[in-house]
Design brief:
It is rod-shaped, with a radius of gyration of 22 Å. The chain is built from four helices and no strands. It is mainly alpha-helical and about 150 residues long. Helix 1 runs parallel beside helix 4. The N terminus is likely disordered. The longest helix has about 45 residues. It has one domain. Helix content is about 75%, strand content about 0%.
Length: about 150
């Protein structure tokens, strides 16, 4: 997914209150993303035996590594967003510092861009996990149906 930098360029015109709301919303979304990553990791772990028996090990290994990378990427991003939110208080202190507003907005733009990119790449990864689990469940169902003794009784 290509992220267009101009799609979040509206930041130049946002008030400090609006920027604060953006940051709080973004922190919430990234924290939820962290929970989703944990859920998907647990989901894959719960199907480990099926992954091994269906010869999907390589595909699942790559996905597991990407989930791990996402998890490592999310922790510092949350920390940066929290720090960024705290800096807003100094921006609102009514003491005029030249270019302080512009610097904050530039930092805000960069953080929002990074968060959007993180969310977009995670969506792709989540689709891959669901496709993998779908394959596993189909194969499991197929084996169950083909197993002797599962014929319909009349």
């Amino acid at each position: 997914m290509h992220i267009n930098p101009s799609s979040i360029k509206y930041i130049e015109w946002r008030s400090p209150q609006g920027l604060h709301e953006d940051t709080i919303t973004c922190i919430s979304e990234i924290r939820f993303l962290k929970d989703e990553i944990q859920f998907l990791s647990d989901l894959m772990k719960s199907h480990t035996l099926d992954i091994l028996s269906e010869n999907l090990f390589e595909e699942s290994r790559v996905i597991a590594l990407e989930l791990s990378k996402q998890k490592k990427r999310v922790k510092p991003l949350i920390k940066e967003l929290m720090n960024h939110s705290n800096v807003l208080e100094t921006l609102l202190d009514d003491i005029d510092v030249p270019d302080e507003d512009d610097e904050y907005k530039n930092a805000h733009y960069q953080l929002m861009f990074e968060a959007v990119a993180c969310l977009a790449s995670f969506k792709k990864l989540k689709r891959r996990v669901f496709r993998l689990i779908k394959k596993i469940l189909k194969e499991k169902k197929k084996h169950k149906l083909l197993k002797p003794g599962n014929e319909s009784r009349e």
